[in-house]
Amino acid sequence: MATANDDEILEGFLCPICKADLKSATQLTNHFETQHAEEQDLLRSLKDIFGKAKKIILNVDENDLKDTFDRALKINTQDNNSWYTEETQTVGVSRSSSEYFKAVRSARLERYATETNKLLIRLDKLVSNMPNEVNQRKQHEQDVVPWLDGSSVKLCPNCAKSFSLTRRKHHCRLCGSILCHDCSLFLDFNVAKGIVDPSAPQTLTPDHEVTEKNGLRLCEHCYMLIDLRKQVQDSRNAKTALMTAYEQMRSLMEQASPAVAMYEKMCQSLFDGESTYNLQDVNAMRGKIGKLAEGIDLLSKQVSLFPANPGTRQARLQNSIRQAAANFIKGDLLSLRKLPTEAQIDEVRRQRYERAQKKVEMERQAAEKEKEWKEREGSSRDNSVQHDDELNPLLEQMNIIRGYIKEARKELRFEEVAILEENLKELKKEYHFQMLSNKS
Prior knowledge:
Blueprint lengths: L1 E2 L5 E2 L14 H11 L4 H42 L16 H31 L5 H11 L25 E2 L6 E2 L5 E4 H8 L18 E4 L1 H18 L3 H31 L7 H26 L8 H21 L8 H35 L16 H18 L3 H26 L1
Helix pairs in contact: 3-5, 3-6, 7-8, 7-9, 8-9, 11-12
């Protein structure tokens, strides 16, 4: 900047001699070197002036920038540490923030837990005595949870859309707040009963079929809290792979015990010469027990191979389960009675048949003696009625029972086979008694 006269002030990179504006410091230096070479002393002084000015300007800018950064850093540090402590922390010393975070988390969890518990209490009151009729249901819902007065509410608090004839006002059944139909969420009655009483049986309804008729209208906030509670319940009740394998193993063991008892009963029947079961039936039952033993062994091995730290309680428990399963298989499933041979079975049945024939012969002789005694006493009996075997209802019943026995054996229902065989024996005995009566 230079002064041309008293009234005019010139600004720019002006030559101090000719007052020419050179636009930049470089052009001004070149102009002065070429046009005013005789003024070298003045040139050096000009360079010194520009150098000092540049240093001053740069130094001021750096100091200002550093002060500004320090102030911002100090303010930021104070803001970040205001929640922790007002004391100055020693450099190099660490401090734990766990207590603060626990306090913040506990306060928030307590608030959500308190609100969720209130909603669960209301939900229990709603679903415990819910009437079937719509009018009575609405009255019951209002008695449990008072509804807010929506006379002055013009907009839906959730979507901010205005209420009209097509957009009606509705109320949340748990908090009583106002909302529109589009912002409503419905909680199935069966799901609600399962939340308040986890032991109750549940018959779930698909989400797209849950309406106001079979569900409770809720706002988004209440539905979120109830759904979170349900997720917590499901996660607690969820079974691990280890538990699932153990329960399957226990189920097979429970099936094996009556199967072994049935096998022993069938074997004893064969040794006694009875015709209730045959050798094929007993072999089929033995094969079933063998498959159960294989399944138990495989599942117990899976339980023992689940990862667990050696020496821990879980590792000892898994080894105990494996050992118990091995003892059960060895002691109960593999120590079955040896089956008799076909020749042994035929011999026992032949002896049994001979004994039965002797008994029948003795009964026939006793019947003949009784007939002779009655004839001597002058009594007579008309036994001229002859029964046609093909039309006898006892024979028809016996044939039907034989068909049932065949089907039950095919499906390995040997308990049912035993019952049907007993019925067949009773029918045979009755039929034999009729034949003896006709002969006498």
